[in-house]
Amino acid sequence: MNPTSTRAVVRIARRNIGRSRWRSLLISLLVMLPVAAMLGAATIVQTVTPTPERSVTHQMGEADLLVYPAGSGATGDALRAALPAGSRVEPVRIAEGRLVLPGMEASVTLRSMDLGGLAMGMLEIVDGRPPRNPGEVAISASVASLAAAGIGHSITLKGLGSPTVVGLVEDQFDLKARVVLQDVSVGRRRPRLRGRQTGWSGCRLGRTSRAWTWGQTSRDRAAPSSSRRPAAQPR
Prior knowledge:
By secondary structure, this protein is an alpha+beta fold. It has six helices and ten strands.
């Protein structure tokens, strides 16, 4: 199309727009609205979908490896002996618990971990502070609502007494989760609770972190493990 033809088409289009302004506006809106809706939906999906890095942090914190012990020889000392020098090991415990309420009981998830250590990012303290001894806990908003308790109050856990609430905790992947965060010292024990899941989280300190599976270097029965990347051999 030569310049003369282009100018003629533009003049005709301009005249049509001037003669039927409302029709032209309606056509423009019909084109813009679906495009705006698609862009808005894509933005919302991208905003609410966690990144792979955030998902890994929620599951493993700052650790490179999660090890769940199995067998009589699966102890913290055995794990440290199997890992390379400079490795850092911290206990992590997840178990089912029962919140005792007037006339009823409610299920809760008991978690014991150091949110200032390798478990950083798995849960978030939104008010108060983390527990510092077995007589303290931090609870999620759902537990606080059920127990009508806040910071400074006590809640009753079946078989675990009545610890004092010192903080409010949040699971950013499940805002309605009933979480009771216990002191990290609880994770070093082996209480006989139904559905317990006790493990250790560990990483190698240094410029580059390497993941290690217990089964490669230990003769004891190896437990299932999770890592941020495939297990690596020492350089």
